[in-house]
Amino acid sequence: MRFLPIKDWSPGYLYVCPRHVDIRVRCETCGIEKDFDRDTLPIALYRAEVEDIERRLKCACGEKKARLLFGHLEAAATDEKG
Ligand SMILES: [Zn+2]
Description:
With 82 residues, the protein is an alpha+beta fold. It has helices at residues 43-46, 50-56; strands spanning 2-5, 22-27, 33-35, 66-74. The protein contains two helices and four strands.
């Protein structure tokens, strides 16, 4: 699977983001990217602005430079030609 972000798009608020949109979180400092599970968020944050949530996410490296990416996970087999 690879992640295809929707370029320059954000729902603004997480709770208005459609369920079919996959979310990843990336640390702008160390570059680590991982799946983001919106269901693990406290309700208070779920209703917050995306930018506000990004400010609260702390990476394993200790930095708070998270960026939420919205897009789709796609199976790579269909378009990888090697
Ligand atoms: Zn990091």
